[in-house]
Amino acid sequence: MNRTFKTVASSDISISELMLPSNTNFSGKIHGGYILSLLDQIAFACASKFSGNYCVTASVDTVNFLKPIEVGELVTMKASVNFVGNSSMIVGIRVEAENIQTGKIKHCNSSYFTMVAKDSEGKSTLVPGLILSNMNDVRRYFNCIKQVSLKKEQNMHEEVFDYTSEESLESLKKYNVKLEL
Ligand SMILES: CC(=O)SCCNC(=O)CCNC(=O)[C@H](O)C(C)(C)COP(=O)(O)OP(=O)(O)OC[C@H]1O[C@@H](n2cnc3c(N)ncnc32)[C@H](O)[C@@H]1OP(=O)(O)O
């Protein structure tokens, strides 16, 4: 079967939204949960655009809240597919907030979502291959390879790790916990 390939740039998508007082938390900053909901929407749009299929969120791999977002700031989210497997894609999203009076822009969030493409019967389906057109695309792809293998290692570790062993329990002494078993 001939596999199609598409550029990273063909997956590019961006959304901008003015932050309203209705989305604030108790301290008057924009609620993290609201940002997460926008991130999920743009990850969905980016993955669907690239794959040409309906997509679901398989995992939210990293969400780094770097700076708080204020009411009245214009938030822009830029997403692109950084990595493809067979049916999965890792979408990287950069979030910036602009003070529209001063034009000052701050980087507020970087996130990575794993999305899976589905066919009309709801089965995971093959996505196009990725054309890496510049060294930035290559860097991001390598970072994702590392991220995927670390996740696999972590899952394997969870499967084989004996948390009940004397050695494991002893090792907890160096943490800020007290065992009262
Ligand atoms: C847009 C939205 O918000 S959708 C709502 C929220 N999301 C959902 O409801 C999704 C619910 N979950 C599911 O439908 C399923 O568990 C799926 C699609 C995520 C995975 O289904 P599975 O039957 O396990 O599929 P399968 O084993 O074939 O894996 C499919 C791909 O997903 C990847 N995958 C599965 N689970 C994960 C995970 N937790 N993290 C990262 N990748 C994953 C697999 O590695 C595989 O990748 P590949 O095809 O590129 O090799």
TrEMBL record:
Keywords, in A-Z order: Hydrolase
One of the protein's GO biological processes: acyl-CoA metabolic process
Residue span(s) of domain HotDog ACOT-type: 9-121
Gene3D superfamilies: Hotdog Thioesterase (3.10.129.10)
GO cellular component: cytosol
Pfam families in the record: 4HBT
InterPro entries per UniProt: Cytosol_ACT, HOTDOG_ACOT, HotDog_dom_sf, Thioestr_dom
Domain of life (superkingdom): Bacteria
CDD domains: BFIT_BACH
Molecular-function annotations in GO: long-chain fatty acyl-CoA hydrolase activity
Similarity field: Belongs to the acyl coenzyme A hydrolase family.
PANTHER family: ACYL COENZYME A THIOESTER HYDROLASE, PROTEIN VDLD
Full protein name: Acyl-CoA thioesterase
Organism: Flavobacterium petrolei
